[in-house]
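User: My collaborator sent over this chain with a note saying "see what the structure looks like." That's all I know about it. Can you take a look?
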Amino acid sequence: MTKMVTDVVCPFCGVLCDDLEVEISDDGKTVVEVYNACAVGAAKFLHTAAKDRVKRPRMQQEDGSYREVSYDDAIEYTAQMLARAKKPLMYGWSNTNCEAQSVGHEIAERVGGVVDNTATVCHGPSLIAIQDVGIPSCTLGEIKNRADVVIFWGCNPAHAHPRHMSRYSIFPRGFFTGKGHKGRKMIVVDPRNTDTMRLADVGLQIEQGRDYELLSAFRVAIRGEELPNMVAGIPKEKIYEAVEIMKNGRFGVIFFGMGVTQSLSKHHNIDIAIMVTKDMNEYTKFAIIAMRGHYNVTGSGQVMGWQFGYPFATDLSRGFARYNPGETTSNDLLRRREVDAILVVASDPGSHFPISSVKEMAKIPSVAVVPDINPTSAISKLHVPVAINAIEAGGNCYRMDNVPIDARKVVDPPEGMLSDYEFLTRVNKRLGELMGVA
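Assistant: Without extra context I'll predict from the sequence alone. Here is the result:
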């Protein structure tokens, strides 16, 4: 016998699809099948029943092998490591819920550490730009129902956010758009001829790293001024064509990804993209939204903002919050060897950080609180497997458009396994005992 759980939230990407249907066993312990999800989202649900899944903490031995330890031992090791460290780094947070993030930040404040999330190697430049010039944004629901001009700049949702176009941006029948793709114009800017670009009405294959120039050209074209024959590898006629489509729309949106944030000019690219959006609002309604990756990286920035006033790279080592990207960001701290311990929660910097940072992580005391074996757990002194959030543990999360969504538990985690929130709460309690603080 099986039963169906409806309206389930998918914890894969920042789209946070909330229309999944999950078939589970009658005892509530096993996912049998997943409906409405993309291939990656479905795989995440089905992985909960993997036979080779690690279910207990593992401590690395001197010879590189692992021995299983209890959660009590893991909590004690983590608390002792953080209590002894002069400046620990607490990194990740993008694949866990807001409740666990909040407890983690409390721990960071208690031990005088640096707390940073995956925006530091992703959309950190977007957050810096928003602090510079603000952001005219909206929700994905508004895009679905109103947008008739959609621009994808430096992103490939066909692969990175598989249901984005079908749920919100291109294909759905909106309240005011009605006809799906036929009722919308799609512009794609990318140095590669991606699967997303192949669907575009206007595809602009830009020269790598020259986004700022092309965005500047858009501002010139919007004002009706003369352009040189070629800008960033794009003929001026194509730029004028794209701008004309933008001006003729009733509601337009720019979705931008890491192709803009992590290329030459970094946050200045986003500054000027936001100014293009502002310019367009003199002609029609226009908005801009970052294509956030991990399912709750937006929530991590929100929670850190509530608690400390900054969305990432927050240094608490002096007893108050300091924020200076380039100084207080994870890679800079690791390369300068300024941190003497690292706690990774719900992330995999071993896969995404440069090798110089990963080598430093391998040298210092380290704990990885992640559900699966990954490159980070492989170099950490202690690996603590936990329940998979939004599947085996509920909690709040934020969609890429900053809309909060409550994700509920679908199945039970393996017997005796803690969630991120439970593990961090117990570490926090033990730290209070070690440091003589209630």
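A starting point for your reply to your collaborator: The mean pLDDT is 96.
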